[in-house]
Structure formats: structure tokens, C-alpha cells
Write a structure and sequence with these properties.
The chain has about 400 residues and is α+β, with helices and mostly antiparallel strands. It has three domains: about 100 residues, PAS domain (Beta-Lactamase, 2-Layer Sandwich), CATH 3.30.450.20; about 100 residues, PAS domain (Beta-Lactamase, 2-Layer Sandwich), CATH 3.30.450.20; about 180 residues, 2-Layer Sandwich (Beta-Lactamase). The strands form three sheets. A five-stranded antiparallel sheet has the order 2-1-5-4-3, with helices on both faces. It has a five-stranded antiparallel sheet with strand order 7-6-10-9-8. The radius of gyration is 28 Å and the shape is flat.
Length: about 400
């Protein structure tokens, strides 16, 4: 189940290249259903071009030696005969005493296309929508296009004077090593990749910039989802091991924050009168005390009440404006956005779970689905503990009757 939820394409093969399994993302990249590939050898299929097969075979040899590989670039032939450029990384893994290969594939077709477009545009610097500069060895900017002006402001550059500090050092290092240097920098809410390309014989360098904000956000999103997946895996293990309700809740909150999936988390269970029964938190500490005081009065925040009445996740993008009276407003506002969901199973509502999360993740559907899955798992654990407690409390003769 977690394998299918993974945002990247994953597959498993044996050391001979025979497919054993894959996830939904792998199906989307190849165009094939996993069932169509299981048992088949990718070296013999038409997935790879003839020129890429020897390279793929060499990677299997490395896996056989216990070595990971990649990322390596391949051109993939999809089922509909279209082609995509992918990067593959592989890792030998042990499973039930058998060595298998875990492969991760990323579609880089658009990224390749973007790089090619930037290279073409760089031939026409004045029209290039990305920064293009030429800088001499003494740090003087010899040329810059219009798109470079915000970058020069970021550098605090003064016309006719040399660049200062680390940026001038990049120029010197690129010329001294006669090697291309790449660095990323943030300008406002954008992430810009800068490539310092030396022209040593001319004693200057060309600087090419590209806006990689979307790519960086996508990478962060994938990284974050994988952290949440790890937290859910830990919770899955916990609900089958832990028989104590308080330790289950505390362990779940710790799992959600220790993997760095969420900034903070808390779970509140309510009694039949709507007052707090028990709670657990992680990442809040003393900041949770005002909320605890409110809950002990039998009061639940407005968004908590909404969560108790619906199955869907309640999203609070801007806590400061959405719930100004919340006791956690300061800490939540500092940490981005909030997701809250009720804990319920088989018609019984146990309480609510809430987490703080970076604002740019909160509207992601996969993020919300994983959060609901975590809530469902915790509710299952609570239900199991409750059923076992009820079973133990039954008179022995009643238990025997239930077994018959």
C-alpha cells in the first residue's frame, strides 16, 4: 500500500533484470501495467533502445557486486511508442535472504527540454528571460541583460565597481580552476541556479542563470512525502505492537515529527461529553499548555469542531487570519499551515489529530491522503485496544460463550 503511494516511480527486479514488481508511478512512466511486466526481462523488452541495453547490463553487474548505481540517463520506449528521458538509480536490497534490485526512476524529459531551451536562448542574451552576465577577472560586470538586474541588486552591485565577497570569489575560482562552477541562490521567493562558465583565455566568465523554483519545490515535495510515508510506516508497526492507549498516541505524535514530516503534532481524545479524555503532543512542549487549558474546559476550537463533523481533512492555510482566537496561533503561524482531521472508526469518533506543515505542502492532494491514512491507522489502533480491553473485562464464562 505504501509502495503504491510513493510519488516517484519504483520497481523491483532480480539481479538478472527480471521484473518482480512496481508502483503506480512506474506504470505512468512506462505506459504498462505492472502485471504486464512481471516476470519479463527488461534487457529483452523494447523498453530500452539498443544503444542503452549495454549500459543497463553494466549497472546490473554493479548491483551483483552489491554496489548502488546512478542516477543514469536512459531513453525509455513507452507502450504507446512515445519516448521519455529518465534517470534511474538502483540499490541492491536484501529480502528474505535474497538480493534484489530496488530501482527509482524519474522522468526528466521536461528538465532536459528546459535545459536545451535555455542553451538556445543564451545565444541571444538580450532577449533571454533568464540572467546572463559577463564578468572580468577583476570583478567588473562587463555585460548584463535586463533579466540580470534583480540579481545585481541581490549582489549589492555598484556600477563600475568590483563584485564583493563570495560572488567575486566564485569568479576567481572559476578562472583559476578553468572549470564551470554552479551555485544556487534565493532572490525573494525564487530560487535561481547560476552557472559560472570561465573563458580563461579572455580573462572573463559568463554567468547563466535559470529559475529552478518549481523544480526545487517539486524536490522538496517529494522529499516531504517520503518522510510522511516513513512516519506512516512507523505508525503501522506501532498499532500492532502497542497495547497501551497513551503510549500509542505519544508514539504516533513522535513518529509524525521525528521523521521531520511535520513541525508539530497533537492528538486529543474526547469523552462522551466532549471534554478531554487524554492527549499527546510532539514538537510543541509548553506551547501546548494554553490549548490544554481550553480543552479541559470542554471547549474545542472552531476548526476542531468542523473536523469532528466531517471525514475530510480541514485545511488552515493562514492560521493568523483564519483562527485568531486559537491558543496555538503564534506557533502555528510561525510554522506555516495546519491540517486537522478526526479520528474515527466504525461510527465511533475518538477525537482529532492536528499537525503543522509548510504552507506550500498543505493543498497537495497526496499530502492530505497520507494524513488521512495516518489518522485511519491510529483510529484502528485505538479500536483494537478498546476491543481487547472489553474482551479482557468480560467474565470468563461470557468469553467462552462468545468463542462457541
Amino acid at each position: 500500500m505504501l509502495f503504491d503511494y510513493a510519488p516517484g516511480a519504483y520497481y523491483i527486479s532480480d539481479l538478472k533484470g527480471n521484473f518482480i514488481g512496481g508502483n503506480k508511478a512506474a506504470e505512468r512512466i512506462t505506459g504498462y501495467k505492472v502485471e504486464e511486466l512481471i516476470g519479463k526481462n527488461f534487457l529483452k523488452l523494447k523498453l530500452l533502445s539498443l544503444t542503452d541495453i549495454p549500459k543497463a547490463a553494466k549497472l546490473l553487474v554493479k548491483n551483483l557486486r552489491g554496489q548502488p548505481t546512478g542516477p543514469d540517463e536512459f531513453v525509455l520506449n513507452r507502450k504507446d511508442n512515445s519516448k521519455v528521458t529518465i534517470e534511474i538509480s538502483t540499490y541492491p536490497v536484501k529480502f528474505k535472504g535474497r538480493t534484489l534490485v530496488l530501482g527509482m526512476a524519474s522522468d526528466i524529459t521536461q528538465r532536459k527540454k528546459a535545459i536545451e531551451e535555455i542553451e538556445e536562448l543564451a545565444k541571444f542574451p538580450a532577449e533571454n528571460p533568464n540572467p546572463v552576465l559577463r564578468i572580468s577577472k577583476d570583478g567588473t560586470v562587463l555585460y548584463h541583460n535586463h533579466s540580470s538586474e534583480s540579481l545585481l541588486e541581490h549582489w549589492y552591485y555598484q556600477k563600475g565597481k568590483a563584485l564583493q565577497d563570495r560572488w567575486f570569489q566564485f569568479v576567481l575560482d572559476a578562472l583559476s580552476d578553468n572549470a564551470i562552477k554552479t551555485v544556487e541562490t534565493e532572490i525573494g521567493d525564487k530560487v535561481i541556479s547560476l552557472t559560472f562558465a570561465p573563458i580563461a583565455e579572455k580573462d572573463f566568465i559568463n554567468v547563466y542563470g535559470s529559475d529552478i523554483t518549481e523544480r526545487k519545490q517539486a524536490e522538496e515535495r517529494i522529499k516531504h512525502l517520503n518522510l510522511v510515508l516513513r512516519a506512516i510506516r512507523n505508525i503501522n508497526q506501532l498499532i500492532f505492537q502497542e497495547k497501551d492507549r497513551e503510549r500509542l498516541l505519544k508514539g504516533a505524535c513522535n513518529s509524525l515529527t521525528e521523521t521531520r514530516g511535520y513541525y508539530s503534532s497533537f492528538i486529543v481524545l474526547l469523552d462522551e461529553e466532549g471534554k478531554i479524555d487524554t492527549y499527546a503532543e510532539a514538537g510543541l512542549g509548553e506551547d501546548f499548555l494554553p490549548m490544554l487549558k481550553l480543552l479541559k474546559k470542554g471547549e474545542v476550537t472552531a476548526f476542531g469542531q468542523i473536523a469532528l463533523k466531517q471525514e475530510e481533512v480541514v485545511i488552515i492555510k493562514d492560521p493568523a487570519s483564519a483562527c485568531p482566537d486559537c491558543p496555538l496561533i503564534q506557533v502555528c503561524s510561525d510554522r506555516g499551515s495546519v491540517m486537522t482531521v478526526r479520528l474515527g472508526r466504525d461510527g465511533k469518533i475518538y477525537g482529532v489529530m492536528s499537525v503543522s506543515i509548510p504552507a506550500y505542502f498543505v493543498t497537495n492532494k497526496e499530502e492530505q491522503a497520507l494524513f488521512m491514512e495516518a489518522a485511519g491507522d491510529i483510529a484502528l489502533g485505538l479500536n483494537n485496544i478498546e476491543m481487547e480491553k472489553n474482551w479482557i473485562s468480560k467474565p470468563l464464562i461470557s468469553r467462552k460463550g462468545s468463542m462457541n
